[in-house]
Amino acid sequence: MYICICNAVSESDVHSCVQAGACTTRQVKNACGWKPGCGSCTRRLSEVFGQAMAASANASSDTSAA
């Protein structure tokens, strides 16, 4: 699903950025080449970024526990 239609950024793009080490939404925007557009995606980006960070943290704790 697209998070930002103006920049053609999808949920999987955000998850990939987090897996690659992005720790802030600004880093995700920079990695995706995000340019200012209509702004309607800002809240959705924050939600998906939070989900990606949580998933990354869970994956890290599962790996270190093994």
Task: Explain the overall architecture.
The radius of gyration is 12 Å and the shape is elongated. The longest helix is centred in the C-terminal third of the chain and has 24 residues. The protein has 3 helices and 2 strands. With 66 residues, it is mostly helical.
Category by helix and strand content? mainly alpha
User: What percent of residues adopt helix (DSSP H or I)?
Assistant: 55-70%
Q: Please report the distance between the alpha carbons of the first and last residues.
A: 32 Å
List the helices and strands in order.
Answer: EEHHH
Question: Average pLDDT, to the nearest integer?
Answer: 90
Name the strands of the widest sheet in spatial order: 1-2
- How many helices does DSSP assign? 3
Gross geometry: elongated
- The total count of strands amounts to 2
Strand content: 5-15%
The low-confidence parts are: none
Main beta-sheet annotation: 2 strands, antiparallel
What is the alpha-carbon Rg in Å?
12 Å
